[in-house]
Amino acid sequence: MSTFDLVIIGGGPAGYTGAIRASQLGLKVAVVEKRGTLGGTCLNVGCIPSKALLESSEHYAMAAHGDFAQHGVKMAKVELDLKAMMDRRVKIVKGLTDGIQFLMKKNKVTVFDGMGALKGKSGDGFAVSVKLKDGKTEELVGKKIMLATGSVPSELPFAKFDGKKVISSTEALELDQVPKKLLVIGGGVIGLELGSVWQRLGSEVTVIEYAPMICGATDQGIAKQLLKILEKQGMKFSLSTKVSAVEASSSGVTVKAEAADGAKVEFKGDLVLVAAGRRPYSEGLGLETVGLKVDNRGVMPIDDHFQTAVPGIYAVGDLVRGPMLAHKAEEEGVAVAEILAGKPGHVNYETVPSVIYTWPEVASVGATEEQLKTQGKAYKVGAFPFIANGRARALGATDGQVKILADEKTDRVLGVHIIGPRASEIISEAVVAMEFSASSEDIARSFHGHPTLSEVIREAALAVDKRARQG
What we know:
Elements lengths: L1 E8 L3 H12 L4 E5 L6 H6 L1 H18 L17 H25 L3 E13 L2 E8 L4 E11 L3 E3 L12 E2 L1 H4 L8 E5 L3 H12 L3 E5 L11 H14 L2 E3 L3 E8 L2 E7 L5 E6 L1 E4 L3 E3 L32 E3 L10 H15 L13 E3 L4 E6 L2 H7 L3 E7 L4 H6 L5 E7 L5 E8 L2 H13 L4 H5 L10 H10 L7
Parallel strand pairs: 1-2, 1-5, 2-3, 5-16, 7-14, 8-9, 8-14, 9-10
Antiparallel strand pairs: 3-4, 4-5, 6-15, 11-12, 12-13, 17-18, 18-21, 19-20, 20-21
């Protein structure tokens, strides 16, 4: 029986990043991962493969629909090689998972390939049983435990996943042919991103959303702009629509629903992607052996230092409160490692950015206008469009804008919301600004290279004080 300073159950972004940091700080660390490859949902069947397909499908769409012609690049015939596109996705994922495996060895982290479960107290630590892939069992002891088991797609009671006609995001990344008609239940990040992939490749995509607007908690002004742009691209939407049943047969699927006015409606397609969110994964962890419980949403309660109700056991990532985002999970994993090493590990949840990788992209950090109004906080707004930006015009990507919300009295930046080209990249400036409690004036007076997309952030900051220069 091997003993470690820290045993981490789960090898996703929180687990492997926390393991590396803990090892750097001198702890003896083990990671238990049941998937067979490290990286978690994000790297294996989430963030990375979806972005690979989004990038490839965008290139195909630009070539197929003549967007390259405006750059003087004409193509007589464009063909889709879906297998090559999928092979590229697999190659990217493998390269990254292999890289993480190398980092584990480099940092002297011991990796156990199997399903880990708590088995109660053991001396001054906790026993962990690992059911290995070969059927054998390995027994470990962790003086401290970090639970980093992530999340899984949420099933609907009337739409159970069958992996063929009723699919989750996992299967939507692995289709071997383009469906003629794809139905998507859920107008959030996953539904819009994967819907975009298959719409670009030729599928007729209909998004069915219960709420009156897409994008959930995203700033509603930005969400409305995205809706119009996606509709212009060809994606169809049925908002304020409550799904009541999904019927699958060999010929396709039928989604039965109720519209906002009470009328019964039906949608027919080849497949239905259920993208109704994700739920924390805690099955089979042996929580009962140490007296741990999750709440009615499946979330593990923790204190301000990520410790559960059982001293010595910590939980992070999708298993705990907060947004289910890989970068949030990474910072929590690192924070726990630093706390265990006697350092002040901390995560600033007010500056966690979120991104929707449609085209154009949507990226946000901080409060939305709706949240500020609910809080009764007085604020100023500065907005600037990409169409007035030289780099955006050169790229031929002028849809969207940057919106900055600043405190009316102090001018401190409260939120930044972007819809536009490469919003995922330029949001980082706003994150750093908010981390240092910057004002819109600070951003407005900071140099921005010309011509760059990031100049739109400066112009939006200038617009807070009604002095934008390029509009």
